[in-house]
Amino acid sequence: MSAVLTASGIWKAFGDKEVLRGISLELEANEVVALIGPSGSGKSTLLRCLNLLEPIDDGQILLGGDDISDPRVDADGVRARFGVVFQHYNLFPHLSVLDNVTLAARRVHRMPRQEAEDRAMRWLERIGLADKAREHPDRLSGGQQQRAAIARAIMTDPEVLLLDEITSALDPELVGEVLDLVRELASDGATILMATHEMAFARDVAHRVLFLDGGVVVEEGPARELFAAPREPRTREFLARLS
Ligand code: ADP
Ligand code: MG
């Protein structure tokens, strides 16, 4: 197995608040890893640090063997190697769905328009949104918007897909269609690191789970084991509170 993404000893503070306190993780090719943990435990900050949206204070991040935490690195070039989907505000309201899905491919990856649109349309067809390509995002349901955001993130063949609580702003009846798409990408072999509070989903889809609390990885293990038999008291408390 080869590590696609390796983070070692990541520290990050906002002012005097230490948010990440020496986090290490490794993501193998085709692996799906879930980050779980209470609100404020540092999941989003970790994801943002990994794709250089936030500078780290200490530690090292390797992507495909390249040290992307080196300050001399081209941060935009690095970000283009990740696909990212957040909880909110993923699509530009003034652009069509097709333009949203192709924008990064064209601007950042310099993909020719025709190729970008062909790829985008194949994804939109796959996710059942081809007929919405010329619409603006506000004509789509929240679940459709998130699926379009996932299509945008995946259509440039990112080395790693980072997903940050992508269903937590959705009405409950729309969650399933988004999770089903992630499940499909996972079974197609995408390499995914996802912060999620959907525990059943994490258990079923993730290969490994990391439980974060207070900016440290308190426990990690194969998803089924960690949920069935958490070893650490803090993990047990967290999981017990949810059920
Ligand atoms: P999670 O995603 O697990 O809920 P976050 O990474 O969003 O956790 O937040 C971890 C901690 O960092 C929280 O205490 C949050 O308030 C703080 N934090 C996150 N981003 C910032 C920021 N830009 N400035 C100051 N504090 C922040
Ligand atoms: Mg978060």
TrEMBL record:
Q: Which residues form the ABC transporter domain?
A: 5-239
- According to its UniProt record, where is this protein mainly located? membrane
Q: What InterPro entries is this protein classified in?
A: AAA+_ATPase (IPR003593), ABC_ATPase_HisP-typ (IPR030679), ABC_transporter-like_ATP-bd (IPR003439), ABC_transporter-like_CS (IPR017871), MetN_ABC_transporter-like (IPR050086), P-loop_NTPase (IPR027417)
Q: Which UniProt keywords apply?
A: Amino-acid transport, ATP-binding, Cell membrane, Membrane, Nucleotide-binding, Transport
- Name its cellular compartments: Cell membrane
Q: How does it sit in the membrane?
A: Peripheral membrane protein
Q: Of which family is this protein a member?
A: Belongs to the ABC transporter superfamily.
Q: What is this protein called?
A: ABC transporter
Top-level taxonomy: Bacteria, Bacillati, Actinomycetota, Actinomycetes, Micrococcales
